[in-house]
Amino acid sequence: MIQKIQFSRFGPAAEVLECVDAPPPPPPGSGEVEIDMIHMPLNPSDIMMTAGIYGGAPPPLPCDMGREGVGRISATGPDVSGFSVGDLVVPITAPTWQSKIIRPVEALIPLPPGIVLQQAAMLRSGPATAALMLRDYVTLGEGDWAIQNVANSAVGTCFAQLASNRGIRTLNIVRRMEAGTHLEDIPGAVVIEHVGGPSDELKQKVEDATSGEPVRLGLDAIAGPSTDAIAQCLANGATLVNYGVLSKEPCQIYGGHLHFRGITMRGFWMSQWLQLSAPAEVQSLYAELAQLMNDGVLHMAVAGAYSFAQIKDAASHAAGEARGGKVLISPA
After folding, report:
1. What are the two backbone dihedrals, phi and then psi, of residue 278, each rounded to the nearest 5 degrees?
2. Which residues are CB-neighbours of 135 under 8 A, at least 6 positions away?
3. 217 with 135: CB under 8 angstroms?
4. Cα–chain center distance at 328
């Protein structure tokens, strides 16, 4: 038997997630490999999925969980090239919260030797989301400014690190200054405390930090009034990208930002990008990010590690606001 994490009813993750025994998967077929999973992170999207509010529609029940993780190949099927037993890989398709999975080789990211496994477990979502939003919407040069909320998150941390690596400066909004202390060590990163309220206060803090220089890219992970708060801080003609709805509210933005000031608003979803992109482009992106992770350019904090049997404790920890990093789970 293998172990896996699933839920059979919608509700708070700490209440509905459970570790269950399941029959082992069949041997890998042609072009497939068997993977023993090692570490897997809990993301905000996982918490929202158990509540039935993530994606286009609630998933069918019971729902096997997990979109990220790192594992080691334990067996290969016929016609497999480029991968061998013992290789460390990141699967890019769900579900991953299982002790053993089968995947086609085109759904695997190979990892460089020596990479830290807990970091590799978080490669699929946070670093890639940050890299694509930095790359695909605005061409920023050395010394340019970008702004983001929820900057202490994995995506936010990776965005600040990747921007700094290119000489781009970032304005990083956090609700508590202590939540952003790790960002202060990133060259070019400015941490701004803002707990909501009048957005003109945030705009003034941004103008003070930039000495009035234009901010050409904004990232919003919250939606609700926070979308407009970011828009107010942007230069005319800038681009605002929403990639999350942590407030569970629709994006709110004054129409004048769009038609008077020429601000462009876009949406980003990592899963959709993976579905629409050519395999070669996916492999190229992750090869670059894995190397940056191995070189220490990308690093995300780990707040705690739990076994599958402790999934309810892990989910409770992951849902907390002051956890200070990702929560990881492992089969053993």
Report:
1. -65, 145
2. none
3. no
4. 14
How do residues 186-219 score in pLDDT, each as one tens digit? Answer: 999 999 999 876 678 999 999 999 999 999 999 9
Token pair of 71, please? 């594992």
The pLDDT mean for the chain works out to 96
Q: Rounded to an integer, what distance in angstroms lies between the CA atom of residue 132 and that of residue 137?
A: 8
Q: What whole-number distance in Å separates Cα of residue 34 and Cα of residue 218?
A: 41
Is 54 an annotated catalytic residue?
yes
Which superfamily, per CATH, for 126-270?
NAD(P)-binding Rossmann-like Domain (3.40.50.720)
Query: Which of 3.40.50.2000, 3.90.180.10, 1.10.260.40, 3.20.20.140 is the CATH number of 2-122+300-330?
Result: 3.90.180.10
Prediction pTM value: 0.95
Which residue in the block uniquely carries the two structure tokens 């939606």? 223
Nearest to 102 by CA among 159, 209, 26: 26
* Residues whose CB falls within 8 Å of the CB of residue 52, separated by 6 or more in sequence, listed in order: 10, 58, 59
Q: Where exactly are the structural domains of the chain?
A: 2-122+300-330, 126-270
Give yes or no for a contact between 290 and 158, defined as CB atoms under 8 angstroms apart: no
The secondary structure of 91-115 as a DSSP string is E-SS---BSEEEEEGGGEEE--TT-
The residues, ordered by sequence, that sit 6+ positions from 274 with a Cβ below 8 Å of its Cβ are 92, 282
Q: Which of 21, 288, 11, 283 is nearest to 134 (CA)?
A: 288
Cβ neighbours for 296, distance < 8 A, ≥ 6 positions apart: none
Active-site residue identified among 54, 243, 254, 286: 54
- pLDDT class of 324 with cuts at 50, 70, 90: confident
Q: Torsions phi, psi of 221, nearest 5?
A: -110, 0
- Burial label for 332, CB within 10 Å (0-12, 13-18, 19+), is exposed
Cα–Cα distance list, 242 to 170, 178, 222, 270 (Å): 17, 25, 8, 12
